[in-house]
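pasting for the record
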Amino acid sequence: MKDTHNGKWRQVTKVLDTRREAELWLRQSTSEYGLHARGALGVTVAEFLDEWFDFASHDWSPPTRRETTYVIKRLKADFPNKPLAKLATRDIDRWVTSMRHNGLKPATIDRKFRILKAALKQAVRWEYLVASPAVNVTIPRHSRTRVQAPSHDELSTLLEASMEYSHEFGMFIRLSAATGARRGEICALRWSDVDFDGSTIRIARAVVHGDDGSPVVKSTKTGNTRTVTLDPGTVGLLRAYRTERAEQALGIGVRIEDGFIFSHEADSSAPIRPDYVTMTFGRVREEQGLRHVRLHDLRHHHATALLNAGVDLATVAGRLGHADGGRTTLTIYAHFMQPADRVAADIIGAVLQRSTVTNPPDRRIS
């Protein structure tokens, strides 16, 4: 342990009869040391969280800052005037339990807990704490909700209705379905991202809502850029849409140049707002009696259609922008891969059958 008076490390030992007694003594000793850690006694949970937020939030996206701000506000209310050094695992367990009693879903509780856990990890680095009380907290298990992708007929209905609503909105929905890109990534597309000759589109950034609600362009969710190949039908529609936008701009004396593909500005200088897209999609789907279909489900349809058609997992993961080589893709869409698994079983069965015929068992009589 570090001596809080001279800053030097000193070794503390004790001989005990059992492992259980040793672990209990270790927890008590580190806890007592934590109460006297340098500067920790004078810092409350609320003060520390404010300090951590100012330190850590500079590179966060606006949605992350908003969610973290809300969680910190709740933590301050739940731990008023609580000294940071006295925050124990049981306190956090009670906080988690209270959220469960208030009806929060396990996934929501987990997101909030991860914010506190990250903050307390920094408290250890700053030597406010010897060990994080969040390490042994019990978090309710949550199972991932099974993806419900829209059917091909439902997608066709939505594509047609979206085109009838407006050419711009219809093109947005078409690109969403054709690329599997996230809403914010489609909002951030520029004309320079499109290679018409190569039939590809580059997804390099995303639009989110800033702290004041205005659209902000940032990197993609994973921070990576990917290039997705487009089908001929989508390329043709995109060509026609670009010609239409260019003519509209010239009609009022401006040029779209390298503007955003989807924009409410005549010169395409600002991206379309993500919430506008969601609101419009909600209106269109309700008119078609498809209230159960979400905008994000177009991404699910893209993934499941490809997987069911036998496209390999790595390719699908690359189109979706999953950065872990397909692990996330497999986790989300595993139950949609049953047809491919059946094909695999039939293939291996045929191989085994040939092996059995070619190499019959040795029946020599000894």
